[in-house]
Sequence to fold (350 residues):
Amino acid sequence: MNEASAIKNDLLDMLTCAILVLDDALHVVYMNQSGEMLFGQSKQRVMGESIGQLLRSEDFMGYLRLGLKDHEPQSIRECVVDVLYGETITIDCMVTPISTTGWPHHLLLEIHRIDRKLRIVREQQVIHQQQAARELVRGIAHEIKNPLGGLRGAAQLLESELDEPELKEYTQIIISEADRLKNLVNGMLGPSRLPHAERVNIHEVLEHVRQLVSTDLPPEVQIVRDYDPSIPEFMGDRDQMVQVVLNIVSNAVQALAGQGTIELHTRIQRQFTIQQVRYRHVLKVEICDNGPGVPEHLRDKIFLPMVSGTAEGSGLGLAIAQSLVRRHKGLVHCESLPGRTCFSILIPLE
Fold:
């Protein structure tokens, strides 16, 4: 290799996007270092492989064939592909036909992985939605709690003036309903207690919740565990983490309607971004079920107060879970399709 070629390869390896060159059979004849990171494979193992084995998507392959046939550039936006090692990602890709000495009738691919950017944008949308909803709820709560207090006090005074027990039953109804509404408003506002920092073992938390729900679990519902034992303890509030996991698992039990499987997974994510901050190590707890999934019209709203996918749900469980995890500088993320719903609890380990 001469000096000019070495410089060219070094420059291509410095690019953050994956650069590939395909021959007229759509086999890989060149790939830079970002391509190695995208596929999790070395150049030596990928050379000569069909791109269809590395990135599985009929739409993607259709664009490549069209680029070869028409010899025209193709721009592929937000294409969902399955990578060789099993991960599903979203990419943007620019396909440029090239015909130069040594590379006749080839395709140059510039691949940008954008699913992480899309996830960060969605996280920001969820955070902004919650902040707006919290301000709205606080305003409404203030307007409701003041007259509720007066209503309850008046009912107590009225009760003290009544002699007939049957009439006192009506004032008790007023008092109990006023208390119920007050508790509902407090639930909408979310937890008021700040996290109590202590060392938390996430697997102990998961096992505690599993034992709690197992007492009332329908016989046709199974809980499957897949833990990474190497995950260290982290500083957090154990009771609040129990509440987070319990809220999500309880939702999964309701979604299964008496039959199905709930999966509990723990993993470490490296170099992961949460709320625009990049962390070296992040704890990821996945709570998945094979129920019908979150209705499409609710997927962008499920973390807002009073939004529920079931008639019997209060709509507060996920909103409270998100609020508690955010106090740990983390986030709850949801991905749902019919037959597979996963809630991911992401907490920095630094």
User: Anything to note?
Assistant: The first helix runs from residue 3 to 14. Residues 118-189 form one domain. The chain has ten helices and 13 strands. The chain has a mean pLDDT of 82.
